[in-house]
Amino acid sequence: MTIPGATGSASFGSMYAGRGTHREVVEWLAARIFAGTFAESEVIDLGGVMGELQVSQTVVREAVKVLTAKGLVAARQKRGTVVRPRERWNLLDDDVLRWQLGAGVSEGFYGELHALRCAIEPAAAGLAAGHRTGEDLAALEDALAAMADARGAVPALVEADAAFHTALLAASHNRFFARLHQLIIPGLRQRDLHVHAGAFEDPVPLHAAVVAAVRDGNAEGARRAMNILLERAEQDHARATAADPVLPQ
Any idea which UniProt keywords this protein has (predicted)? Predict the structure, then answer.
């Protein structure tokens, strides 16, 4: 069975293991919540959902359990299933972030993502300088080479940048930092697509400076190089936004 409008798929690292109709109902409901079809504080007519999708009460209830666990909805006594305020949604959840990006980022999203990166990535670079292995260095250098080989081809450049920052977080050998790649990278990909759609400076030298400091075991140098890289990233995004005011902040 295929439910119209349930086009998403559970991402790598998805927190729910639903398949088939169950997954499709979760995706269908989530898409409408993020689009505002089911507005904040609105009661979702689950009977109507069952009728529209031609699915059982059990399937809908199980889908609602998934969305409840992710903070999107809540059961209210004498009211039913209610969409929670957006600020209560669990944006640290892989699927919630995927749905957010799929619906279009909200105002301030990229600024908040940049603030998160500034708090995490310089520290991760410093840790990587002290804990990197040969395998970590190979992953960073492979990503750097892919970035150079992309030569302005935006999709390849975006994937190389994602691979670089994933490898850097992993090289910190901090399990919490490493896990954050699933929070940072999807938003970074979206940002890179905007930034690199126009003219941009070669990103390789600033990334290479981070790799050099990590390779040399220079923690302070790695933190400094990453801060410089992030400062340039913010400047690039500001230029892209100024050139196309429709782009989100």
Answer: DNA-binding, Transcription, Transcription regulation
